[in-house]
């Protein structure tokens, strides 16, 4: 771990015809094997960042290098092999008429021989628990299922990095949980680096590292613990505080001693139990 | 205006090979001034119920009473427009219904369809825009030049300008960021109180249901599973969890603590502050019953 | 009414016709459209009809379903029949009702031409009933492949077709949703004067256009992100398999054609 896989160096970007830049002088590294959450309210520049990482847009200033290759018009197709992306709207990224065709789409684009395709389609779908839906049509799938198919389509190409661009924001709670669990499992088993762009702080709490974006700038960077110490500042930024963090704070306020701010309910309950049950 | 569903059943594409039973034996009373939340999974039938509230769907069995009008299975109904004037629906992703050249015209569209004069509709557009927290200078802009969050608000303003007695909300905050979500939900709650509306909120969010509703209906597989006040509904959280439904996080935490400490608090708490108080109290007592 | 229409509808099944390669089915339908014109007397039409009904039998599509689905088409066939009966003025008069005269040749032509029409419709319907739209697309793509030499965009056309097919149900759902949203805002789609109803289409069409453009844009981005850069260097996942049955069915049609020439008057 801890080898930088992606380096972003002084990147600025403005959309055509807009005065305020979408990104202002952004610099940070993405480490191999980490789960990085990029959070920020709608319009904070986080989605623009995702587009730059995949060469869907190019920075006007600064450099981005992915797996040692600088991202330019010339290297973009090479880089895209290493960076898979899952978008927000489950419907608008489903190209195939059936689940298996959709997963195969990326493989076809990269000219993968058919025998390998057949095998990869099956194994990738198995990995996201959609292996029994091969011939299903997209309009018969739930949002969460469609997003899992999209993930299968990405991992079929065996990328080093997977970017989730608000991939859970249009899903119901069940779909959201399915997708997050799937990604978690993939990250642990396949050692894929995950970049999740989100405004769901519960999702960010599960990451190894969090970057907070605000008005096109990198506002703060740290572990989830460090980020949630920001507390009211997060609310000011249009974000929220995860429930366990809120409860930790309230409990302290009511005179309950806690060693730290907890990010999960389990941790919180465990500390309450170990520190108080002995009395 | 009271609304009441009596033993409503609805089948999609009835009498065809593609027939599909969406809801059956649904009875719900929504007295005037109630804030009702309908919760359940995707596919539990809650969207189908919602469409009966202003006669967008007609029951295939049973009847729906909307004010003094009765919509009954197997009978032709005329002039449903008067119902729709009184029951406004904010659909999921309502920004998809925008179509006019300017924000103002789009907001005026609903009221003018119901016979409001142009000058009145203009006044209503201004007022509605203010209600949803948008500046007046966007009235002349094209709705398609706005940000996603602003478009959502314009679409909501378009429904509010109809000045309905009953407001039906289908996941009105889906896809918004936390701040937008809170602002919109607070807006509806304020309106509910100020204008003495009936509000029906269809949602996945147990948090919102617990926070805003007077009454909760839990839908499961096309049927009403339970209904009652939030306190009643969440007093048996285990039953909900068994159905794969979430419970509000506050209640989830309370359950975990009760389980770990082998105890039972005196009541189910729906507020974070109150739960913290209860836990602190309990721990001061030595963590014993 | 719309629910019973069978044009362009696929009925899942395992019949011989279902299992055939879409290419052979496309070729057979194409040839059949030509072969039909060989028939010019009772024996030849009888052979054609027998061939068609044999195919219907092989497809295992329930006759009642086929009949129900083609009902609106029968009206059209009947109309063709009437047209020919009244317009053809050859041969001896066989019936005279006031100013209305029916000639023998008219009756003959009426029967033959409406029969031809009916058989054509049956055979083309069988194609869509037993072949998924995507199979048809694949079949067309391979059959048209030689045209690539003349810069005909075969791959793009096939991709366009398959994406349209993929999005039809999505757009149907969307239409229904927007229609309901506007109905809730006081638009009436099912009643009221015609002028009002035409006006009501605008609040439906504009949102549909806008969302379709948005979808197209997002889809293009997603496709690009997944490495799509045109047809070059692409491999194909879906494969077509030409079997014995396909060759046999083509030969069979060949035999029928020879028979038609022999019986032709």
Automatic annotation (TrEMBL), chain A:
The UniProt entry, under InterPro entries, shows: AAA+_ATPase, ABC_transporter-like_ATP-bd, ABC_transporter-like_CS, ABC_transpr_CbiO/EcfA_su, ECF_ABC_transporter_ATP-bd, EcfA_1, P-loop_NTPase
> What keyword terms does UniProt attach to this protein?
ATP-binding, Cell membrane, Membrane, Nucleotide-binding, Translocase, Transport
| One cellular-component annotation, GO | ATP-binding cassette (ABC) transporter complex
Chief location of this protein within or outside the cell: membrane
Ranges for domain ABC transporter:
6-240
Q: Which residues form the signal peptide?
A: none
Please state where this protein is localized: Cell membrane
Q: Which GO terms describe its molecular function?
A: ATP binding; ATP hydrolysis activity; ATPase-coupled transmembrane transporter activity; cobalt ion transmembrane transporter activity
Q: Which family does it belong to?
A: Belongs to the ABC transporter superfamily.
Protein name from the UniProt record? Cobalt transporter ATP-binding subunit
Organism of provenance: Mesobacillus subterraneus
UniProtKB/TrEMBL annotation, chain B:
Domain of life of the organism encoding this protein: Bacteria
Q: How does it sit in the membrane?
A: Peripheral membrane protein
Q: Which Gene3D superfamilies match?
A: P-loop containing nucleotide triphosphate hydrolases (3.40.50.300)
Q: What class of enzyme is it?
A: translocase
Write out the annotated subcellular location.
Cell membrane
What are the record keywords, sorted?
Answer: ATP-binding, Cell membrane, Membrane, Nucleotide-binding, Translocase, Transport
Which EC numbers does the record give? 7.-.-.-
Identify the InterPro entries for this entry. AAA+_ATPase (IPR003593), ABC_transporter-like_ATP-bd (IPR003439), ABC_transporter-like_CS (IPR017871), ABC_transpr_CbiO/EcfA_su (IPR015856), ECF_ABC_transporter_ATP-bd (IPR050095), EcfA2 (IPR030946), P-loop_NTPase (IPR027417)
Pfam families noted in UniProt? ABC_tran (PF00005)
* A GO cellular-component term linked to this record: ATP-binding cassette (ABC) transporter complex
The record's principal subcellular location, in a coarse class, is: membrane
GO MF annotations in UniProt: ATP binding; ATP hydrolysis activity; ATPase-coupled transmembrane transporter activity; cobalt ion transmembrane transporter activity
User: What function does the entry list?
Assistant: ATP-binding (A) component of a common energy-coupling factor (ECF) ABC-transporter complex.
Record-stated family: Belongs to the ABC transporter superfamily. Energy-coupling factor EcfA family.
Q: How does it assemble?
A: Forms a stable energy-coupling factor (ECF) transporter complex composed of 2 membrane-embedded substrate-binding proteins (S component), 2 ATP-binding proteins (A component) and 2 transmembrane proteins (T component).
This protein is called Energy-coupling factor transporter ATP-binding protein EcfA2
Traced from the root, the source organism's taxonomic lineage reads: Bacteria, Bacillati, Bacillota, Bacilli, Bacillales
TrEMBL record, chain C:
Q: Which UniProt keywords apply?
A: Cell membrane, Membrane, Transmembrane, Transmembrane helix, Transport
Function statement:
Transmembrane (T) component of an energy-coupling factor (ECF) ABC-transporter complex. Unlike classic ABC transporters this ECF transporter provides the energy necessary to transport a number of different substrates.
Compartments where found: Cell membrane
Q: Which gene encodes it?
A: ecfT
Species of origin: Mesobacillus subterraneus
Q: Subunit structure, briefly?
A: Forms a stable energy-coupling factor (ECF) transporter complex composed of 2 membrane-embedded substrate-binding proteins (S component), 2 ATP-binding proteins (A component) and 2 transmembrane proteins (T component).
What GO MF annotations does this protein's record show?
A: transmembrane transporter activity
Tell me what topology the record assigns in the membrane: Multi-pass membrane protein
**What is the protein name stated in its UniProt record?**
Energy-coupling factor transporter transmembrane protein EcfT
Q: Which InterPro entries match?
A: ABC/ECF_trnsptr_transmembrane, EcfT
UniProt superkingdom: Bacteria
Keyword Transmembrane listed: yes
What's one GO-annotated cellular component?
Answer: plasma membrane
Look up keyword Cell membrane and say if it applies: yes
- Its signal peptide is none
Record-stated family: Belongs to the energy-coupling factor EcfT family.
Q: Which residues cross the membrane?
A: 26-53, 65-86, 107-130, 240-263
């Amino acid at each position: 771990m801890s080898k930088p896989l992606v380096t972003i160096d002084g990147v600025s970007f403005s959309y055509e015809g807009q005065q305020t830049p979408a990104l202002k002088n952004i610099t940070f590294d993405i480490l191999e094997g980490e789960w990085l959450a990029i959070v920020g309210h709608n319009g904070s520049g986080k989605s623009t960042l995702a587009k730059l990482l995949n060469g869907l847009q190019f920075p006007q200033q600064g450099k981005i290098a992915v797996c040692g290759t600088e991202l330019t018009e010339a290297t973009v197709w090479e880089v895209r092999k290493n960076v898979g992306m899952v978008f927000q709207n489950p419907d608008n990224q489903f190209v195939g008429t059936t689940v298996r065709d959709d997963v195969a789409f990326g493989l076809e684009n990269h000219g993968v021989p058919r025998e390998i395709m057949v095998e990869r389609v099956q194994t990738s779908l198995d990995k996201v628990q959609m292996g029994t839906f091969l011939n299903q049509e997209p309009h018969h799938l739930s949002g969460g299922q469609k997003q899992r198919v999209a993930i299968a389509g990405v991992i079929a190409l065996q990328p080093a990095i997977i970017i989730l661009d608000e991939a859970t924001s249009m899903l119901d709670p069940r779909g959201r949980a399915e997708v997050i669990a799937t990604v978690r499992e993939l990250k642990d088993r396949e050692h894929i680096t995950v970049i999740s762009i989100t405004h769901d702080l519960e999702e960010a709490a599960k990451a190894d590292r969090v970057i907070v974006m605000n008005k096109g700038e990198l506002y703060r960077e740290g572990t989830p613990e460090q980020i949630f110490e920001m507390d009211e500042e997060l609310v000011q930024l249009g974000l929220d505080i995860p429930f366990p963090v809120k409860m930790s704070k309230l409990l302290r306020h009511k005179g309950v001693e806690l060693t730290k701010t907890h990010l999960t309910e389990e941790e919180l309950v465990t500390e309450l139990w170990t520190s108080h049950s002995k009395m | 205006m009271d609304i009441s569903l009596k033993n409503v059943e609805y089948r999609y594409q009835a009498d065809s090979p593609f027939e599909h039973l969406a809801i059956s034996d649904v009875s719900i009373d929504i007295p005037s001034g109630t804030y009702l939340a309908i919760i359940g999974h995707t596919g539990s039938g809650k969207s189908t119920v919602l469409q009966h509230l202003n006669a967008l769907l007609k029951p295939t069995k049973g009847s729906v009473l909307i004010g003094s009008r009765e919509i009954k299975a197997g009978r032709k109904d005329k002039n449903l427009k008067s119902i729709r004037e009184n029951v406004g629906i904010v659909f999921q992703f309502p920004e998809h219904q925008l179509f006019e050249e300017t924000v103002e015209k789009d907001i005026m569209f609903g009221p003018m369809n119901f016979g409001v004069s142009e000058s009145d509709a203009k006044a209503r557009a201004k007022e509605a825009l203010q209600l949803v927290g948008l500046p007046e200078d966007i009235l002349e802009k094209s709705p398609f030049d706005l940000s996603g969050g602003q478009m959502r608000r314009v679409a909501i303003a378009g429904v509010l300008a109809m000045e309905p007695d009953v407001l039906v909300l289908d996941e009105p905050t889906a896809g918004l960021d936390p701040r937008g979500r809170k602002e919109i939900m607070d807006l509806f709650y304020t309106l509910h109180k100020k204008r003495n509306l009936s509000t029906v909120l269809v949602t996945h969010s147990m948090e919102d249901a617990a926070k805003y509703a007077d009454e909760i209906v839990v839908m499961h597989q096309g049927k009403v599973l339970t209904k009652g006040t939030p306190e009643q509904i969440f007093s048996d959280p285990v039953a909900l969890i068994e159905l794969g439904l979430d419970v509000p996080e506050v209640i989830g935490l309370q359950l975990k603590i009760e389980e770990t400490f082998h105890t039972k608090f005196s009541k189910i708490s729906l507020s974070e502050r109150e739960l913290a108080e209860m836990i602190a109290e309990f721990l001061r007592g030595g963590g014993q019953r | 009414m719309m629910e019973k229409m069978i044009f362009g509808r696929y009925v899942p099944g395992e019949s011989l016709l279902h299992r055939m390669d879409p290419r052979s089915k496309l070729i057979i339908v194409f040839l059949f459209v030509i072969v039909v014109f060989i028939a010019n007397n009772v024996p030849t039409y009888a052979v054609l009809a027998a061939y068609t009904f044999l195919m219907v039998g092989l497809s295992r599509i329930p006759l009642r379903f086929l009949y129900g689905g083609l009902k609106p088409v029968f009206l059209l066939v009947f109309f063709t029949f009437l047209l020919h009966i009244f317009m053809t003025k050859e041969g001896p008069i066989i019936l005279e009702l006031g100013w209305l005269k029916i000639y023998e040749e008219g009756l003959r032509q009426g029967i033959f031409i409406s029969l031809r029409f009916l058989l054509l419709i049956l055979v083309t319907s069988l194609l869509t009933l037993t072949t998924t739209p995507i199979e048809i697309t694949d079949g067309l793509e391979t059959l048209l492949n030689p045209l690539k030499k003349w810069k005909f965009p075969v791959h793009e056309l096939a991709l366009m077709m398959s994406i349209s097919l993929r999005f039809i149900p999505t757009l149907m759902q969307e239409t229904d949703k927007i229609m309901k949203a506007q109905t809730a805002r006081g638009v009436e789609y099912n009643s009221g004067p015609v002028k009002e109803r035409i006006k009501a289409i605008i609040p439906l069409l504009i949102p549909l256009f806008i969302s379709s453009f948005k979808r197209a844009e997002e889809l293009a981005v997603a496709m690009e992100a997944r490495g799509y850069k045109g047809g070059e260097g692409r491999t194909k996942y879906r494969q077509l398999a030409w079997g014995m049955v396909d060759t046999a069915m083509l030969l069979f049609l060949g035999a029928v054609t020879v028979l038609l020439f022999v019986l032709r008057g």
